[in-house]
Amino acid sequence: MAKKLVIKVTAGADAPERCSQAFTVAAVAAASGVEVSLWLTGESAWFALPGRAAGFELPHAAPLPDLLDSVLAAGQVTLCTQCAARRDITEKDVIEGVRIAGAQVFVQEAMADGAQALVY
What we know:
Elements: E1 4-9, H1 16-31, E2 35-40, H2 64-74, E3 76-80, H3 81-86, E4 98-101, H4 103-111, E5 115-119
Helix pairs in contact: 1-2
């Protein structure tokens, strides 16, 4: 089993199944004791803001706020620097525990010994 799972989710409400899959895999991995780093990029960047996950709906899927809370409790959630800037999101806007970082940090995490990276 990978020591660390780095997940980049590029989809939001525009591709709800892909988005939900990424959050579900991240939450299940975190609950299983895997070190998880979930990256919010593209349209998923909006879920770094308070209350935004509550507006996401997908039939037969776990509620996105619950999945996000699970990852925040046991892993790391990162908002892409450029994605945040394009949406005028700053560090003072995001949910407590969400950091803003760029591609260099993503590459470091994804290339770390024992890491496995997934992109949704």
